[in-house]
Structure formats: structure tokens, C-alpha cells
Structures
1.
Amino acid sequence: MSTAPYNFAKAAAKALADGERRTILAKAIAEIHVLRRKSVDAMPDFEARRARAVAVREKTLTRLPDLLETLEAQVTAAGGIVHFAEDAASAASLITQLLTARKARLVVKSKSMVSEEIGLNDVLAAAGIEAVETDLGEYIVQLAGEKPSHILAPALHVSKEQVSELFDRKFARKSTDIPEMTRIARDSLRRKFLAADAGITGVNIAVAATGTVIVLENEGNIRLTGSCPPIHIALMSLEKVVETLDDAAAVLDILPPSATGQTLPVHLSLFTGARRDGERDGPKEMHLVILDNGRSQLMADPILRQILRCIRCGACLNVCPVYQSVGGHAYGTVYPGPMGSILSSVLTGAVGDVRQPFACTHCAACAAACPVGIDHPALLQELRRRLSAQGTDAATVAFASLARHPLLFASAAAVARTADPKLTHVAGLSPGSPVGRFLRTRAFPGFSRPFSRRFRALARRLSRHGGRS
Amino acid sequence: MEAFLFIPCLVEHVLPQVGEATVVVLEKAGVVPVLPTGQTCCGQFAYKRGCPDLVRPLARRFIEIFEDAPAVVCPSGSCTAMVRRYPELFPQEDPWRERAAAVAAKTFELGQFLVDVLNCVDVGARFPLRATLHASCQTTRVLGVGGQTELLLSHVDGLTLVPLSRPERCCGFGGAFSVDYPEVSQAILEDKVNDVLQSGAKAVITAEPSCLLNIGSALAKRNLPIRPLHLAEVLAGGDK
Amino acid sequence: MKTRVRNAILGRLRAATATMGLPRPAAPLAPRRPCRAAVDFATFSTALTALGPTFELAHDPAAAQAALAGVMARHGVRTAVRWNHPDLDAMDAGAVMAAAHVAVIAPEELPDRVCPSLAAIDMGLTGSAYALCATGSLILAAGQGRERGTALVPRLHVALVAKSRLLPDLPALFDRLAGHPMPSAVNCVTGVSSTGDIEFVYVRGVHGPLAVHVIGLDWL
């Protein structure tokens, strides 16, 4: 196991060198943008909807402990069982023990970032439990032995040729026709749904007042996962709750459009507790696992806790030029993109590059797109401030000192202008250095005779010609 | 009226033509530009590095230089945005905070100054050219004054603006980002340059000097015959 | 141990939120725009059929029976599973299926593991709790005699929607649900299961039914 710290710059460079992956990613991002232009960009009342969603999420944060207690009481009243988990390891172990005690051997799972966060699949596998990812993209990624690259489209990076090869290897069924490949997956997964001892889903939003977990999807695998097996385990991080159904409606007004450009997804399921007396299907046991993993500590941070408004729509990823260029894997962490750069820095045990907050162009496309008004640039700035408090680079300190002394500053520029005006010397000396690589693709125009030296003559010339003053 | 010129270090030492054009434009709009001495840098590079402590002395210098100005005009959205953050660098009880707020309130990006302060949307510019507009992130999203740029350009005689694909997408500069993550910066920049090429424009206009430098130097490296122009240069009326 | 963890987490949250104060919206909140969709079958069916499902409007029980017979014939239905639901009775669905010699499983006849038993069944016939006109959505509520698997496992789902069950949109549905005990499951189904996970090529018919047919009951 490598102990070298994760390096995003290196991972990004590697991702960019993979031309095939870059092409697929660019195509997928372009598709997402067509969908965005037709939905959120065309929405006349986006700001009003966002304001309502912000109010709902802020209410959640302010009243979080009350809402969680109410949620617990309501789920319990509906025949469900609520478990609180301190951290990733205890959540994964809790779920595994629950399943082992009930002799569950085959489990179907649906899309859940939280299950990735707690490393659930590895723990289940170690306990001899087969856990099948049922979201088609996740299924493909699982079969290929990889990690998902996007919150919403986990197999974004996989071409149809690659899928075809995979299905040929795993099922001895060959096709590059995408509908046919989808049918192959459907048949294979159907057997699992119908035979599974338990189903594990994530939670998009939980409603405290009714004890309801709401899940959104287009495929139908979440609905099958939560409906067919006799045990349903719903896994959520503790901030994913709202107070009322009306609050949930405010979030649902803006979540599907921001995520996939839809008004509503194909399946929007509201699960409340276990099956009622007299019902013949639906889970006999329903468990809600509520994960902390550093979030309750984060709540005490007045600046950074804003990230807990996040509803995992993926909009910030889709508009981030860095994410668009390198894809999700390069981040080396469960949550990529702008929201991931913040969340991963504050969750317990999350991996990735500690300096991820610096890998940002400050373009603010994320904040503009965020349906719950998270100010990613401000939060990233705060993370950079905290990281730099431990020490910053000599060049920045030097430049800042120089800038305090106008004569020195001007002299330094004059020296540069004389010695190496186009920076060709610097570029030549160390082409592999950051400045060298910067100049590899840019022809630096050169240091000029300063504007201030030209100003007086210019102003005189203009006033001599009458100007308008 | 008089307005004090806030000249970004990039303009002072690398793109002086942007400063010159700014002076010409202000004169056309009936403003007397004043250049106070002793300017160096707004400090945004240090701020974005996470070092507000290093910015504070620069903020104090800026305040002292500019606080007697009737207005402060800057041909850069990013530098203007940095000055607008100066108040929050100082604690509540610190008198510098109020002084910073007073200066920030009268510091404007060029386009915003012309349209919002002077109510001037037409400076009588003539620039016959087929160009496209790169809507810089700092000007449009951070300061929220992208509309003013577009309005001013719409009144330039002879100027044809062709649409740019994804005009609001970052050019990939991001200050230190371009040096710390050069491959990613280059990839984003390449997309922007390709978008500019595909637009069929003979020039690319931006209101932000760092974008101008970034995109312009990439065009030059590729020997592409597309002219990089600052908003001020277009409003100053073209070739002499 | 379990309670200790729970209390520790809630305790940390209480300490953090103690000084937060009540949230104040930055600007007065605009109320949600009233839904512009007309509440009628024309609006509902336009939205519904744009997404893949098919629709037929029946003005009386005889027309509904003909519609049901027709869809079963078109899809080669030999076996079916049904709900216990007043709208099925109102159009005497049982008689139609019997006349077509379709082998029907009633809820009372379902075994302990419902879903696997429906794997080879051709059609699931259900009523609906509501239907949303703005989006063409079916609202299915689970309950006694109203199994989740019925609308989910068979390859064809036929849903009866009575006119009185039409609502404008999702917020209207949530208003109706609030203040009553929640069913164990409420499914809002908009279109046919789809995926774009392979290269963003959109494919209809993944999990869930491959075809959905809705019969509108105009007299109910």
C-alpha cells in the first residue's frame, strides 16, 4: 500500500493524456449541457425556486437534531428500525452484521454515494455476502472492477465497445447494439432482484414529519431494490432530511432539472417503514441507517457547514471546467468536483489530495448552478486559508512583500524587462518547471515600458486634441 | 468629472495598451482620468492562495492612494472584485474596515462605470470588425457586470459580434492555477481557443486582462490570425 | 451502545445548532407559481404519451372493457396479476380477463415471495391513487391487496385512472398526502424505465415494465 500522498495534478495530467477517455467525457458533458439548456437555463423562475430550496435546506441545518429525532420516531411508528452510525467503519459493520444475522447471502444495491463513502462493498465481500450493483452504469463499473466516475453517470467514461467486451467476457453474450446490451443487463439483473435476500438503497431526501425516504431514478432499479427483497436497508447521511412533504416538494422542484434536465425522474418512490399488516409484498423489515462520519463536527463550523445543504444533484460537477476536463476518477475520492473538493476535506477518513481546494480557477460556475445556493468559491477560499495558515510558498510571500514597495516593485519589473522580457530564458532554463510548462503553450507578449510612464504624454496629447472635458 | 485610474499590475507591465485605451475611452465619455502614483498590485493572487494576511498591507496602501477619489475605474473585473473584498479583510471594530468599504463602494470595472455611473452606453466608437466575446468569469459571475460589456459593444459602429460557443466558460487561467495545474489549465484553454476558432471571428474581445493574456498568448503560440482585444481597445475606436 | 452513539451524535448537533438561531430568508420568498396545467385527460394524456406509455379514454364501462381486451390482445397476454381496487370493479375487469381466458392471480393467491412469482406473468393490472396532469405521472400507493410487484415485475403494466383522481402536479400530490398516514410505498411513475448510462444513448425499458398502458375512466 502506497504511503505517498495523493497528487491531483499528476492524476489530472494522466487523465488528460488518455485521449479516448477525454473524447467520451467531452461527449457526455456536451449531452448534459444540451439537457441543462432546455431545463434550468430556460426556467423563468429558477431564482425563486432556488430561494425556496435554500430556505428549506437552511431550516434543516438549523433544526437538524430535532428533525432527526422526529424522523426516527416516525420511521419507527411505521414499523422501521433506525440506526445511527458514528463513522464509516461502524456503519459498514452494522449493516454487515444485520445481514449476517439474517443469513442474507445475496444483496442487491442501488446508487448510493454514502455506501461508497463507507466502503460497504468490500466489507460485505469479506463477510461472504454477494452485493450486486443494480444501476446499469454502476453494474458495468462493478463488472469491470472499477470505480464510478460521476455522481449521476458512473460509467460516463466507458465506451459501448468496452461494455460489449465486458458483457462478452461475463455473460458470453456479444453485441455492440446499445438497446441489446441494455436487455442483456436487464435479464441478468432481474434474476438478482428476484432472488435477493435484502436490498440496500441510498436516500435522496428523508421527510421527518412522515418518516419517509424519497428516492429518484430513471431505471427502476431502486424501486425494485426497495420493493422485492424481504429486507430493505436505506442508507443516508444525516443532513439529507427535510421537515415536511411541502419542504420536500421545494427541493424536488429544482433537483431533477439541475441533475438531469427533467421535471420529474421516471421513478420517484416514497418508502415509509415496513409493509403494513395485511400487505403481502414490500419489505418485512425496513432499516434506516443514518451516518455521521464527521458531519456533526462540521455543523459546528459556521463557514464550512454550508456544504451540508448539498442535495447531490451533480450540477456543480457538470459546469466545472476542471471536472469537465479530467472526469471524476482523477480526484481520487468518493465525491469529486467542486462539492467534493469541499466535502472530502472535512469528512472523517476521506482520501484524496489535501491541496484539492487549490485546483480551482475561481470561475464560480459552480455557485451559479447550485440549486441550494452553496457558495463553493467562498468555502474553497476558506479551506485554502486554513491550509495556508500552516505555511505558504516563498514566491507568494516574496511577491506580496515586493508589492508593498512601489519603487522596488517597479525596479523588479524593469530588471525583468531588461534581462528576459519574453521570459524565454526562464522557459529555457527549466522547461519542466510549472512556469516552463505554462510557457510551452503560450507566447508571452513580454514586459513592456510601463503604462504609468506613458500616461503623462498620453494625457497631454489627448487634452491638446480637445477631448471632451 | 475626474476619475482615478486603478491600473492592474498586469496592465502596467505587460498590457499597457489596455491602460492607454482606458484613458482614451474615459476622455471620450467626458471624464478626466487621474493616475495616482504608487500603485503596485491589488493582491488577489495572495488572497486566492489563502493568505489574506499578506493582502492586508496592500489593501491599506490602496485605500490611502484612492480614498480621496471621486470614483475609481479599473479595466479589470478580477481586480475590482478583489477591492470589493477589502472590507472583510479587517475585523468589525477596525477603522480600516469602514475606510475599505467607502473605497470599495466607489471602485468600478470600466464597463460598469460607463453604463451604471455615467449612464453612457455609446462612447461614439467605431471598430469595423467581426469579433466574438469571451465573457470573463470574474466580470460576469463574480461582479455580475457582463451585461454592461455587451451593451457597450452593441453600440460600437461597424462591429459584428458572432456568437461564441459556451461564452461564459472559463479560459483556464485562474491565476496560480495555470502554473500549479498546467495540464488542466492548458486543456481548458485549448477548448476556449477552439471555440474562438469555430466562431469564425477575426478577433476575440474580453473585459479581463488576465483572460486577454491567457487567450492571446495561446493564439500567438499557435500563430492564429485572431486578434485579442480588450473591451477598452474596442471602445477606444480602433486603428490609428 | 446503540443509544450512546445516537445520543453522542444528536448531542454534538444540539451543541452546534444552539447558537445558530432561526433561519431568516435573505429576501421574502416568492410563493410557488400555481400549476398552469389544466386538470383533464387531454393534458394528462399528452404529457403521458410523450414519454412512452400509451393511453385510451373510455367514456363508459363498455368502452373500458373493450380497451382492456384490446391491450391484452395486442400484447399477447395469457397470464396476469391484479390489484383489489374499486376502479377495477367499476369496469368489471375480472369478467374481461375471464372472457379472454387470461389466467389471473388475485392478491389473496400470492405466495410469500411475491416478486419472484410474478417473473413470468405477462400483465399487471392496477388502479391508481392519483395521476398528475402536468407531467403525465401515475401515482401508485401500496396497500392491502395492492402489491408493489404488480406494477413493477410483469412486462406490461396496465393502469386504470379515474377522472376524479387527476391532480395538477407533484406539490398538489404532496398536499393530498400530508396529514394522512403514509402508505408503505407511494410510487410516482413518469414514463417508461430508461437509462442513458451507456454513452448517453437513451434506451427505454430497463428494469420495470417494458410497456405501460393507461385507460382513462371518464365517468368515474
2.
Amino acid sequence: MLLSIQHRTVYRYPQPVRLSRHRIRLHPRSSPALRVHRFNLTLEPGARVYWMRDLHGNPVAVASFDEPAGALSIIASMELDLVPVNPFDFLLEPHAAFFPFPYTDFESRALAPFMAAGNPEECARVLPWLAREFPDFSGPTMQILTRLNRRLKERLRYVRREEQGVQAPDVTVDKGSGSCRDYARLMIEICRQAGLAARFVSGYFHDPAVARQSPSAASPESMHAWCEIYLPGAGWKGFDPTHGLLATETCIPCAVSIDPWEASPIQGSYSRRGGPVPSSMEVSLHLQPADRS
Amino acid sequence: MLSRIADSLYWMSRYVERAENTARLLVSRLPLKTGGGGPDTRGTLGFWEPVLERYGGLSLYYSLYPEPDRTSPVAFLVSDADNPDSIRSSIGRAHENALLARSRISNDLWKTINDMWQTISAVHTPGQTDGISANPAKMIIKASLLFQALTDSTLPHDEGYSFIQAGKLLERASQTSRLLEIGITTPSPTSTTEAADNSRWRALLHSCNAFEAFHKSFPGDPSPARIVEFLLSSASFPRSIRFSLAGLEEHLENLIRWTNPPAAGQALEVTATLLSEIRSPSLREVPPSETSPFLASLNEKLARLNNTIIQTSIFREDHDPDEKSAQEQQQQ
Amino acid sequence: MFHDYSTDGFYDEMFIDSGQPRPHYRRLFEFFRNLDRQAFEQKRSAIGQTFTRQGITFNLYGDPDGTERIFPFDLFPRIIPGGEWNSLTRGLEQRITALNCFLEDVYSRQRILKEGVIPAPYVLGARHFRRECMDVPVARDIRIHVCGTDLIRDAHGTYRVLEDNARCPSGISYMLENRKALERAFPGLFREMGVRPVSDCATELLRVLHHIDPRRSGNPTAALLTPGVYNNAHFEHTFLARQMGIEVVEGCDLVVRDDILYMRTTRGLRRIDVLYRRINDDFLDPEVFRRDSRLGVPGLVRACRAGNLSLANSIGTGVADDKVLYAFVPAMIRFYLGEDPLLSNVQTYLASRGADRSHILENLRHLVVKSANEAGGYGMLMGPVATRREIEEWRRRIKADPRNFIAQPPVTFSRHPTWTGSACEGRHIDFRPFILNGAAITIPAGGLTRVALERDSLVVNSSQGGGSKDTWVLPDGS
């Protein structure tokens, strides 16, 4: 399936501000099932841009601005070729077929940063929540994890949160609600505390079917977030707790990271002599199947 | 017994014996030099060179002492930490091994070795050496004798004891052979008088602590041929090569009885062959000045015997059979 | 001897106030008062010589010479009355039972985390938590077999636990050697006062090792794993092994084949069932932990997982003496045993808790800050005596990694008369009894009393200029 995406972000400032170097993570992580045919990045004001692969292999555009500006607009437009995938088409290594399982020593070493439990002050009620929901959290690995994924969708109420940042897992548990990034963060913390390596994913979501059923769940107006769990034999496997589904070609990853903030689609700062000024942000996102030609 | 401990006991004992022999060599040569020569540096060096060659090596010596004086050979042999064959180095390694085997040796034995180490490491470093003093060497000889006595009287005579004895006896055999080599090859100091030549052979006997024993065995016949024969194949003198190897044979037999190594007998076989060579009457026909090739080959065989003992009796082949598994991997 | 002795207002073990000995010290007081200076000096030097000759020495980490020093020993024994000892031991038993339950729990069901008694990240993120050992059963469900618990007495004479050493506590040999030396010096006093013996400690330890035989053969082979002769506790390793009649092995002596641990001996490979290991988790098995370790042996953890080997202490016990989790020990006692703690902790602030953190940062000058995972008095800020630069340095460190720091108000340790070389003066002491956990919990009647030899110093660690005393426990009703 060919998909064209247009992602437009505009920041406005009451007075001209000096823009720091910005990191832009809007380019999909290509793979055999996801090919990027075309990708254009347009910045206003003009900037010098170079591309790099960051720590996690994410393609990142680094933009440097010379002149102060009253607004910053970032437009990414692209055309992708998506191959439908069966998310269950893999074979777990025998040692990982049943949860709990220990990673091999080689895996543990590489995965250590993705397994570290969070801040005790913000993640104290995660394991108690899990124990309530799953008094016995063990069994065939995929079965356990898909159940957990579904359970998050069932138990949490989706809300669009405009405020910056991600909710602490304890807050999500207490409030029983959050946005997709909060779902992902909670799921990641659960996995890490249970001894699984998990990472945060930011990207685009496009599924006409789901969008028809519950338009609020995945607003096409912003980017999506989910998580990946490392399963020996399957590799990094995407779980989308907001929808309670395994990630398929409908989840288009742009950046993965240990902590959510590292995967922000756009990251940068601005400053102005004479003190801070507020800013406003406007995002629009259009995803559209394109004709094969 | 842990193989590592057996190894430490064996080497502890070898190094104490080595230190004692180095010390004896030194003590036996000091009066020679002070009696015979003047302050002539070249003479001194000619006299010491065969010794230095076998205890550390001449090239090392000249690199450490580019401008040698009368005292530098002594410093090189006694207290030089850079010379691996100096008394200090030998005692250092004996001490280290004793520390590793601390749980298997008696307190008294440990203390003796500790004292040896304290004494020798307190000896002045080269530049400051206070002339040619034989005192540290004499102390080491005494302490080594105490070490032997304590080994006999404070340790159980079990496999550990046999490893200690094996180390000592093998070292003794190779040291006596080394001393013989030196005795044979040392040129007479500047004056080639008969007196000087006599004193050289006397020193050889002294360096093996054999002076009295020899004269009792061969009263009135101090010919070089007799001396060589005595040190090589006396059946009763405890420092002769033959006597040492016979003792070694006995302890290797004990070890086989106790530990039954899979390669039992390898070391024993080598020892027996060496013994029969030394006992062979034809050896007596060889004139002393031509014994060198035999001694050189003997030394080589003793070194091989050492390896055999370590590989078959201490660390056994069945500890780590070759575990080779092939892995396929594509290289870039 | 005690003429000019002053308690200086501290809680003194021996004197109620200057000149007035506590009842259980009265006999000792009279004995030393009647001992003339010459006899006293004789006994002191005799003991000193015994120690040197036997090489009861330790190496110092961070000492470039690696030279050996004699563990300084003070002649005046510390005395604990029978009743006081009995209540102490009850408290220690309770504590080790709870700690053992805690370890058993966090490495399997994690009830205490799931019920929210301890926020899970404190445990799961602890440096010494070993995820690799999840669901690996240990023989007889015992994980801490030897524990050395450091106790102090505060200004009111109340015993408080300063820390639990549940990894590789050392000091048993010093306790036994100190006792031997004093028994030789004062044979009469021991009989007369009925001092309880500590001598069967090594036998008890061996019994514990036999109890955790994974094969239950009744005749297991045990060995002691040492990092080697240059370790500062090597004397203790050989001492204990000799007392127990087991081998002292190093990593290079060991080999794992088919998940069974063997030692290389002159008689071939010999199977080891129980390893009393005196090296830390990190170095045990390069397959699992630090790959650069030459101290352990590859495959050791596999042997444990396969149930062919018991380790004392088990892998992962370090999480029990994490200084952050220390603060939760009272909660553990309530949770697992349903009892109130018999021994008190020292009040502890966790830098990772918001409210505690601001209290710590505002009061650095008045607190002792410790990093969570350092032992032996390293990694500690003594607020009241620190320089401004140190304070700022620690402020930065705490902010950067709050999880790794705790703070406590400075507790004044009790003092005990101690010989300074020319006079008898009060010096601060702590106390480390040893708890052996096998078929039953046994606590040898005594322990290591450590003394800060420098006046007003609170640092009692042997590695930092502390010394030790013999500890006498009197019979019941004394």
C-alpha cells in the first residue's frame, strides 16, 4: 500500500526568538516492510540541515538556524510503501517461549538499559497494579503479553492530553487514563519491572478500519506512540496498548528510545534576550493512501 | 591436594634450594677473589664471567652495570631484583609461592621463609652496596638448612612433602650440574699457577658443600677427575647429581602411590634413564675438561623432566581434556 | 589506670560516670586497677607478638605498597551482660529471618513489591539485585547463611542496627583470634566471670555448609573461594578453611563441566557441592557477571541453576544490605513476620524521596550521607566535619543520582576505655556479631567489637585505621 503523509508543525512566538539547534524525528525507520519512496523536509525560516543516525539507529535531521524568527514551521511530506505484515509470523527461541524467562547473558548485557526500572517515586504502584490484574503473570510468552496489552486498553480511558511530557506510570495507574504515550510508558514500566526489555516508539498511525470505529482513539491529528518488547527469536516486537493490538504495518515507527523524551518528534529550544516568552503550537497531520502508479 | 598448592610447594622448595646454591657459590668464591687478585677490574670480571653467564646472563649484567666495578658481580648475584637468578629474586619467588601455599605449611616454616625474604629485601640496592659482604649469603644458607629441617620435622610426610622434596632434589641436581660446568670452564685467574688452579677446584667443592666429604672419600687424591666423578655420581654424597636423582625417583614413586596420575610413570621413566646414564662406567673415562657437552645435555633433560612432573603429577592431563567444538562463522 | 578517665558525657560501656563502673564491669575494673603497669605492659606486648608471628594481618585496598599491617588489637575487652545479649540475639534472629524471607520473596513471587510495601524500583533497580537469579531455587530456601550485622549504641545506650552485611562479611577469624589471645592473657578472669565461649563458631559454620548440600548426600564437599593471597581478608579465608578442614580455592583451581563444579587436585577433578565464597557476585562467573573477572569460574551460575551447587551466601544477597533497602527492614519484619522490630534502625532519609531529598540537601552540614552500595566506610560524607567543597561535591552527586544516596543524622557511638599507648581513654566502638543461618540460627556468643583508635573518630573500619577488641558475653542472670 502506498501512503502519503504530510506533517506540519508551526510554532509561533510573540516576538522574534533565537532558535537553538533542533532535532527532528519525522523520517520513518525504514525496513523491508516499510520503504520510504520520497521524503521532503521544509523549514521556515531556512536552516542548514544534516542527517544522522542516533544512538538507537533513528534517522534524525539536525537543523541549525541563523536568524531570529517570529515563527518556525516544519513540514515533512513523504510517500511510503507499506507491506502488510502478519504480526504473529515469528518463532520464539525455546528459552523464551514461556514467561518468565531469563534473557541469555549476551542479551542481558545488550538490553540492560531497556530493563532498568524507573524512578521509585513515580513507579511504585506499577507492580501492585500488575499483581491485581494478573495474580499469576506467567504462561506462554505471547499469550501473556497480548493479554497485558489488551488489559491496558480495557482498563484505561484514552484522553488527549495537550500538555507537554508524559505522565508518570503511577499517575496513569491512579487516574486510570492517559494518552497513547502514557499507555506506552506504563506498559514499558510494567515490562521492565517484570524483567523484560522494552522501549518507547514514536511514529505515525494509519488504519482506516480502526479510525472508523473509534475516531478518538487514534486521532490523525498527531503522532502516535506505542512500545516494543524484545523477545528472543522475534526481536523487537511492537505492542500498541492504546489499541490493545500488536503493531502491524499500521504503526509506522520514526524513532525508538529508552525514555519517551528521547523520541520526541521535534526537539529544540528558543531564547530571547529580556526573558522567556510563551509560544503556541499548531500541528496538522494528513495521511492518505496514494494511487499506485 | 589442590594442584595449584602442589605447584606452589614444588616451586617454593625449588627456589629456596636455588637461592642456597647461589649463596654457596658466592661464599665459596669471595675468599678466592680477595685472596688472589688486586683491584684489577678486568681480572675480577674474567673470574666472574662464567658465573654471571649462568646466573642471569652476561648481556643482562652488562646492561645493568655498564661500568662494573669490583662489587657489581656480588650485587648482581645477591640483591639485584632485575636479575631473575639473583638470590633476592629466588627468595622473592619462594616467598610468593609459600604465601600461596600458606595453608599447607607450618607456621615455623612460613616464618623462616618470611625471615629470609625480610633479610634479603633489606640488603642494600646495588649503588649503595657496602663492599663485598658475604653475610646475607651466609644467612640464606643457614636459613635454607633450617627450612630443610623444618620441612622434615614439622610437616606431615604426605604428598605435599613429596612435592617439596621433588622440587628440592631436581633443583639440586641441576644446580650441581651448573656448578660443575662453571668449575670446568672457569679460566684460571690471571696467573696460571698450580696454586690458583687448586684453589679453583677447592672452590668448586666448597660451593657444593663437598669439601670435607670429598676428602674423606678420596683422601690424598684431589684430582679434577675425582672431583667431577664425586659430584656427578657419588652414591652417598647428598649433593651429587646421582644422589639427588635417586631421591627424586623415590619421591616420584611415592607420588604415584598417592595420586595415581593417568600418565603415571612418565617422570619416573625419565629419571631412571638419567640415573643409569650417570651410573654408567663409561662416563668415568671422559676427562673432566670434556664433560661439558654431557652436562649441557643433562641440564636440558632436567628441564624437560621438570615440565613432565608439572604436567603429569601436579596438573593432570585429565583436568582439561581438549574441548574443541567447531563453529561456523562467516568472516568479513 | 582509670584515675584520669573521663566519659566526657558520652555513653560509656564501662563507666556510669567517671570512676563508677557498671556492675558487669566491676570485676574487670578491679582486676585492671590491681594490675601494675609492668604486668600490664607484659601482657600487651605478649599479645602483640602472638599476632605478628601468626601473621594476622590484612592488606589495605588503595595502599600501593600492598604492605601487610597488623590488625590493631586493644587489650580491654567489651563486656555484654547475659540478659542484654539474649535480647540482642532475639532481635538479630528476627532480622535475619526477615531478610532471608525478603530475598526468597524478591527472587520469586515478589509479594512485598506487588503489595506495594516497598516500591518495586528500589529493589529491581538496586545495584546488587540479580535478575539472573529470578526463580533459581536455593537449597533449603536459605539465602543468607552468614551475616555480620553492625550495631552501635546511641547516646542512651540503645542498640541500633547500622547495617546488615549479607554478602561476604568478614571478621569471624578476628573474633576467634582475639578470644584466643585474651584467654591466654587472662585465663583466671574467664573462669571467674564465666565468659561464654565462641570457639565452636567454625564448627557451626561447617554445619551450615553441610546443611545446604544440594545433593543431600550427608557428606558434601565444601570449599572456600578466595580472591587470592593479596585480598585484605585472606588471612581470614585460610584461617576459617583450616578450622573447618576445607580447601581454600581460587578461580584458577575450579572448572565447571556439565554444570558441575570441580576443583583441580593432584588426584584429578574433585566435585564441589557447597562453595563458601568470599568474592562478590560481580566476579563469580564471567559468563554472567563481569566478563573481565579472573577471580571466579565460567559456568558457576549454571551449576547453581542446575541445582548442583550451593553458594554461601547465595547470589544476589547484596540487595538485602543495600543502604536504601535498609530503611525498609522494619517494614519487612512487619510484612513477613507480623512482628514489631526488636532492634531499631538509625533514622534514614532516602534521597530519592522528594521530601527527604530537600531535607537532605538543606541539611548536608548536619547529616551523614552514604552512597547506597559502598562498603567499608568508603563513599561517605560526614557532614559536620566536611569541607565546603566536599559538601558541594556531594550535593552535585546526590542531585545527579538520588537513588544511590541515603542520609542519616550522625549517631554518636558509645565509648569504651581503650589503651592509647600511654593512657586509658574513651574511644568510640561498634559491634559486629555474626549470625549463622542453617538448620537453626546460631549466634556465637561474642563478636567483633571494632574501635576507632583515633580520638573522637567514628571510623572503626579495619581498612581505615580502626582496631578491635574481644567481646565477652556473660552467663544469664549476670
